[in-house]
Batch of 2 targets.
Target 1
Amino acid sequence: MEAMPDLSVTTRHALQEAVLTPRFYTTDFKAIDALDIDKNGLRDEFEWIKDEFAHDYNKGHFKRNEEFLAGFDDMPVRQLFIEFLERSCTAEFSGCVLYAEMVKHLKDPTMRQIFQLMSRDEGRHAGFINRTMADLNVALDLSVLQKRKKYTFFQPKFIFYTVYLSEKIGYSRYINIYRHLEKSPDHIIHPIFKWFEEWCNDEYRHGEFFSMLMRSQPDLLNKPSNRRWIRFFLLAVYVTMYINDARRESFYKALGLDWRAYDQDVIRLCNQISTQVYPVTLPVEDPRFFQHMDAIIAYDRQAEALATRNDPVAQAQKARLRAAIGMRMFTLFRMEPQITTSQNKWKGLQGFPNYPGPDRPLRVAAAD
Amino acid sequence: MKKLSALALTAATGVALWQWFERETLREGEATVYLQSEHEHFHLHVDLPPGMEIQPGDTLEIVDMPKVPSGQTQGEMSYRSPVKLFKASWLRRTLIKRSSLVEVNELVEHP
């Protein structure tokens, strides 16, 4: 492999330590291993997606260029950008570790290889962000990896529903930023955003695998109780993102984005994409949907304003506001879902390879 | 008197349950740690010794961590390190398995 030139930059900012808070997960690996991916005739599709991952479309993509040499001491929202990098690095790193755990526990060679390749992608993304933080004189405090690590348990189906959504909403977020900055290059506050298009294709491709995995287990999609879980996780993902982004309004403003319009676009796109596998999605085109979402933000802002107060009155007010958020979420959950039909089902991303069928030509993996 | 005895019994049961919940069993061994923290890749993988398995509620501590200047390695490092696996009690494990949804925030949050 070609040696990376040293593209270190100097900065007058003091060395800062990034707080990495990776999550470590465990699940019922035996149950995942027992999933029969052959029973619904999807084996060949799994082989195809494995070949797609092995092809490694982004093998040469995550290379820095001279644009990274520019000083970023005076970049707008520098601290918010660093926090964005920290959160992104944590998420990519956690994904890398989760997928690697799957490799260790699964026996099916195709599944093992798929998780191995997805772990490669996530580790590569984390590395790219890691180096970008180093440019900003932010060193990762690796001692956190030595501390006692807590392993959070989730049922396999919860992992499938949420990781699928996480990959697809990740795609929707990055592609929306990329498309916006293509039109408004003045708002490119850091070159890393120029890497987002190919980057988010990795996320989209990972989501395709989870979509396939769920399709291979129709109960996960068709059982009435599981349909409720699907709606629950869609809502949880959308509300969490909406609240988080509303709290970081100034970061999006620096990118020339109105956080609310941006989030609504992201939610609409993600909801549309998820019709590829979910038989029900949320009624995001119903005007009441975003009215309730906006009400949640109003309550959250009031609660945030009370964050520093701990007196009993403030505590009671915070509890009331949390309850109000919960009630709005319950109302959103109870809204009539959008049923996926052949007309509104996501047909795939333009220009993105779809499963061509069993007679496809053999794929050759990317060369070093 | 009866009320007092019932109260004492409830309190004793509560304490016993709490102690059971909190009880940990320590298992020690030597693992292989793979760490890469640089531009090309950032990952940490730990190969635990045979028979040492992480289950819900367990916590793992890697005892040794080499000095990594500025948090950047040169390629992938692999090294042997003692590890401590704190096995959760049956009660904690069962409760965690049943209540994982409480931590759903971890799964649905996206940068």
Target 2
Amino acid sequence: MGHSLKRKEDARFIQGKGHYVDDIQLPGMLHMDIVRSPYAYAKIKSINAEEALKIPGVIAVVTGKDLEKYNLHWMPTLMSDTQMVLPTDTVMYQAQEVAAVIATDRYAARDGKEAVMVEYEPMKPVIDPYKSLDPDAPVLRTDKEGKKDNHIWHWEVGDKEATEKLFNEAEVVVKEQMHIPRIHVSSIETCGCVADYDKINNHLTMYMTTQAPHAIRTVIALVAGHVGLTEEKVRVVSPDIGGGFGGKVPVYPGYVIAIAVSFLVGKPVKWVEDRSENLQADSFARDYHITAEMAGTKDGKILGTRFKILADHGYTDAAANPSKFPTGMFSIGTGSYDYQTTFMEADAVYTNKPPGGVAYRCSFRVTEAVHAIERITDRFALEIGKDPAQLRMENFIKKEDFPWKSPTGWEYDSGDYHAGLKKAMEVVGYDELRKEQAEKRKRGELMGIGISTFTEIVGAGPSKDFDILGIKMFDSAEIRVHPTGKAIARFGTKSQGQGHETTYAQIIAEELGIPAEHIQVEEGDTDTAPYGLGTYASRSTPTAGAAAAVAARKLRDKARKIAAYLLEVSEDDLEWEPGKFFVKGAPEKSKTIQEIVFAAYTNHPQGMEAGFEATHYYDPPNLTFPSGAYICVVDVDKDTGEIKVRRFVAIDDCGNIINPMIVQGQVHGGLTQGIAPAMYEELVYDEDGNILNGTFMDYLVPTAVESPSWETGHTVTPSPHHPIGAKGVGESPTVGAPPAIANAIVDALAPYGITHLDIPITPYKVWKALREKGAN
Amino acid sequence: MKTTIEKNFQVDEPIDKVWEYLSDPAKIVTCVPGASLTDTIDEDNYKGEVSLKFGPVKAKYNGQITFQERDKDNYKMQLLGKGLDSKGKGSADMLMNGVLVEKGGQTDVTCTMEVTITGMLAQFGSRLINDVSGSVFDQFVKNFRAKLAGEEVDNTLSAGSMIKGMFGKK
């Protein structure tokens, strides 16, 4: 623990020896490509496969009508909505799957796709979520019996009346309308699978890009059990994954079609998306329209907040939230501040856009919540003319007040927000920067300083509240130590680049004294790994990491018994130091863990179970609440609107740190994915539902060129309930960075009366806003 | 994906001759790059094809052309073209308004074109569509002048000019 052990997995990754879905080659394997809709909303008049079938190598064109015969043309979403696998009559968004071409090689499949002729009758789509609720808007989900509008669900939390009263009476009320843009995870590896159905043994092996292989196996069994694919006949293998970020949690139609085709023809079928298909059709993230309000006193005491959300879910609610949380953990949006009055409500609507709402490197809508609270806090500071750092310091929940009950029902486990912000201010040189800013303002130069002091909520989650499709959100670890003292450990999670093979080994090493290099970590094969809900929402360390620690402790208890037997002393006479038990007062009388394990196979006490294995399913008692204090400094060119991020200081508190180097790497990546929606990324649709930036030519993913030099650091406030005091860090930077950047840019523009800009804040937006205010 | 282009140009020909060419589908269509008439339904409705090339992407639209207005007295016309991609990859509509004004023996032509594109081509975004449409329009003007001057017009697609258009070098 606490050591920057080099990542064990990197040896294969940096030598190009990773093994991904697209590396899988099976004898007789067929290839699939997918015909997609050019329209956002249209009736399908006909699908003509004649020309496609003439292409050498093309063997079949599969349509919704074909799947309908087996009742496989639709599937449930993780949010208990329904989604077409292939349409039988209507397409609901641009790039929707329309038909699948099966061929003997990938090129023939692609040629076949070009040759399939589809006749459509376009209809006027619903694109604007606000217009989706108009009484005269067409009802999109006519497949749902009795559906009379495009409303999906309403959600609310907090005290509506008390909040109204507070806002009516408060000295100061500020309000901003914000859009958290629709963005895409854009992982380096797109989605894909190889479905391999063995007709003789009635067994399906599904190699796929999934962050949650066990849950997927259960879903396949639930959806296809009626055709004989019961759960013991299904094996899901998730090999190396090139980034997931939440985008590889849902089940996409392509997977289901591949399974159906393999099932029907009895041959393996490979499907791998291209870059544009991934960007245009796979689950988007965010797309929340938020009205954020804060009430307080003139001298800067925050008294309450109110948030009203309109959630654009596209054609179906295919978000990946825990079942009971349609807005995920948006209710963390009261933030790091000590007040008890809030009201939050959300309405979700259907539009003719791709479905989704995945938690992009985020515990289910925390990014949206943090943006709203951190932006409106700055807005409040601006309104009353108080320094935003000072305002935060005065309103933070105090260290001694933890565990702290939030007005939306969470119990924050621990935190020291004052220490985090103080450290960030020292590192960045806050007071000098404010002086510099004042001087620059006198000269008419634009410089801004933005702060974000966020509280995260991760590690979903305790079984009393958290499930996905009814399956509780525990996670698991199984440790087997071989006679020579080397171990294999398997988990219900699945790394997509997070470094589990190293950090899990370090946790076990810490608890059991076996060197991390002697612990082989495996995940992703449902035939061998224990059941778990997978990796997303920074949950691996809080759940499976905890399971590893508890399972290792079970083994340590057994080791103590064996050591007592070998040393012929009472268990109580033994003391543990990492790697061995020794007799109290006689440290020369000791047994190493390796000796003890060997004895477990060769000389174990009579009556004791032989072997040295333990499994634990960890059901966390609470979530963990990491926090951070981020400060961003920007310089803005008044004439061109160009924004330069000069400094970015990120002080994270993720509790006890297992591997500082991996944490730093996570923070660097996450900050870059934070600057992305803050300044560059947004999926843009026109009024006809055409995506206007469906390739990386127009959808701007920041690269090293755009990334500032990140300055990272940490404070450590251990989680009191986690076995090793860790909290999880994967998503903190993605969640915390956008408001810091937005606050900095708005701070730079404040002299011109600009109080808010929606992200992504591009030079054009800045130039336009300044121009409207007569600044350039 | 909607884009509107407005162009104004002068031709050194009398207004009635210009009108005759502009309002005659057989003449005007042969000036549109990549376009051809395939069938006459009646005097206001025609069937035709338009091919477009955006760098590596080629699209061919089959559709109908309708004269919604042909007002010879005021030299005003409105033309609606509706096309479906022949491979089911999208559609393109074009509403064109043309007005002629006589200016000292010359004719002043003002054209506005409202182009709506759906599907794969629309995904290139306004950046490309504007440039390519502008380049197509410029080629149309060139062809139209040539036609009026009695020269042979070659309205086959010139990939070079499209690509030039894509990068904004007009």
